[in-house]
Amino acid sequence: MNNRLYGNLIFELSKEGRRGYSLPRNNFGDYEIPQELCRAEDAALPECDELTVVRHYTNLSNNNFGVDTGFYPLGSCTMKYNPKINEEMAALPQFQNLHPLQPEHTVVGARALVILLEKSLCALTGLDHFTFKPYAGAHGELTGLMTIDNYHRSHDDLQRKKVIVPDSAHGTNPASAAVCGLEIIEVKSKADGTVDVDDLKRIVAEQGNEIAAMMMTNPNTLGLFETSIPEIAELIHDSGGLMYYDGANLNPMLGACRPGDMGFDVMHINLHKTFSTPHGGGGPGSGPVGVREGLQEFFPNVSPYNGNFAVMMRAYAYILSLGREHIKEVGPLATLNANYIKESLKDVYELPIDTTCCHEFVFDGLKDKSTGVTTMDVAKRLLDYGYHAPTIYFPLLFHESLMIEPTENESKETLDGFIAVMRQIAEEAKTDPEMVKSAPHTTPIGRVDDVLAAKHPVTTYKQMLNDNN
Ligand SMILES: *Cc1c(COP(=O)(O)O)cnc(C)c1O
Fold first, then answer.
1. Burial class (CB in 10 A: 0-12, 13-18, 19+), 207
2. How far is residue 174's CA from residue 410's CA, in Å, rounded to a whole number?
């Protein structure tokens, strides 16, 4: 890529007086702009010809990595293929050009779609009602917890302000509970990675009448199926609390089982993950919340209008294109692909919990720890081979977590290619560890100092110029 030739910033390509466009003829006459509203100096805008602009942005876009360019095994994030038919449906002008304040009789089709999507999600989850207002998974968690809080308040159960969260949970779980004004109690995991029911019993015995809810992810963030859910749900329900299901990552469940049948009362789904909307970098998302009959009256109003409609359209197109029969294959295939990779690599990567996983699993770095090559190094070296890195250093249960989720869409050839490269890197770690530690070698930039970038972000061009001088 000609990135160096063309510059990283459009400002660096600017030549005084260059123009890429001409303004249309002024049909409105001249108007005086009051002096006090005018700039003292001209805005420092880049001045470029059209072709330079096209090349600049095309080259930048070529530096992007996405599911459409390569394998993206990012655990917990479900970076799966987003079928193009979904994009076509979401771009239909009849839907795309709707305004949320249009008269109701002009949006009958859109309303029908919401109802049909709700029915589909109810069928897939075993719950009875959904609200589509939340814009993301974390927003859904907050909405679900507010629903639960409203429910307890309506029963004058004002002391129920504690939420039990497993130590393996996604970070958003305790964060959402805290934002909702609830207190977090952490329940331990056993050595096999699932919730320690004895620890839970102790918590319930001590603080049962203060418990608002228990939040669970199943399969949990280690990719393991929580086998004690019926027992856990009974414990929590008997104490007066509700069961919350983090369904951000519903891939392994499709066709396998339903949270509603397992005893959960409230859940959210990340439509942008399981139901295929291109996401990342903060959006776009949709985190609908589902509840058991009777709880829908406690839904809070967390956003204006009816949620992120284009994401809902993609989700419905995805569900329809798979159909009742084929959607049942998603979970089993995602599970098969993850287990295939795990079994093919566990002799060279450390597998702390050696059991059948669901849609994802976690290695604890390389098996051979004597090389000094870390999970970070492996992740960076993967970039040289054209793969997106897996999720690293999460979950926090292990020091060198490397969390892999291939999804159901990948062919055996793609999985075999990834396995071969992971084995190759394990070999390189032994024969040439310095080369792995200094990876990546082929990307436009090497390792960035992400702490510095977060603490002192350089967000303006001016600042950048000063720094360079
Ligand atoms: C992704 C994820 C979330 C958060 O979803 P966002 O849409 O990123 O807010 C919560 N829980 C789990 C298990 C997840 O994988």
1. middle
2. 33
Residues linked to residue 401 through DSSP beta bridges, in sequence order? 364
Report the pLDDT value the prediction gives residue 2, as an integer from 0 to 100: 43
Give the model's confidence band at 82: pLDDT under 50 very low, under 70 low, under 90 confident, else very high.
very high
Tell me if 63 sits within 8 A of 3, measured CB to CB.
Answer: yes
Q: How far apart, in whole angstroms, are the C-alpha atoms of residue 50 and residue 54?
A: 6
Q: Work out the mean pLDDT of the chain and round it to a whole number.
A: 92
3-state SS assignment for residue 219: coil
pLDDT of residue 15: 92
Whether the CB-CB separation of 110 and 90 falls below 8 Å is answered with no
**How far is it, in rounded angstroms, from Cα 71 to Cα 80?**
9
Q: Which residue has the least CA distance to atom 8 on ligand 1?
A: 137
177 and 163 Cβ atoms separated by less than 8 Å: yes
Backbone angles phi, psi at 185, to 5 degrees: -115, 125
Specify the 3-state DSSP secondary structure of 22.
Answer: coil
- What is the DSSP secondary-structure string of 120-160? HHHHHHS-SEEE---SSHHHHHHHHHHHHHHHHHHTT-TT-
CA distances 252 to 216, 258, 322, Å, are 15, 11, 15
The ligand 1 site (C-beta within 6 Å) comprises 76-77, 136-138, 170, 172, 217, 221, 246, 248-249, 270, 285, 287
- The DSSP line for 364-381 is ESBS-GGG---HHHHHHH
pTM above 0.85, yes or no: yes
Mean pLDDT of 19-47: 89
Q: How far apart are CA 318 and CA 83, in angstroms?
A: 8
Residue 272, H or E segment: helix 271-274
Pick the residue whose CA is nearest to atom 4 on ligand 1: 137
Beta bridge partners of 186: 165
Confidence of residue 1 (pLDDT cuts 50, 70, 90): very low
Alpha carbons 298 and 304: distance in angstroms, whole number: 17
Name, of 123-132, 165-174, 300-309, the range with top average pLDDT.
Answer: 123-132
Residues 447, 450, 453: CA angle, nearest 5 degrees:
120
Pocket test for ligand 1, best of 78, 80, 245, 270 (most atoms within 8 A of CB): 270
- HSE, CB side, 13 Å, CA atoms: give it for residue 145: 32
Q: Of 135, 139, 232, 148, whose CA–CA distance to 189 is shortest?
A: 232
One-letter amino acid for residue 219 of the chain: P
How many other C-beta atoms are found inside a 10 Å radius of the C-beta of residue 245?
Answer: 27
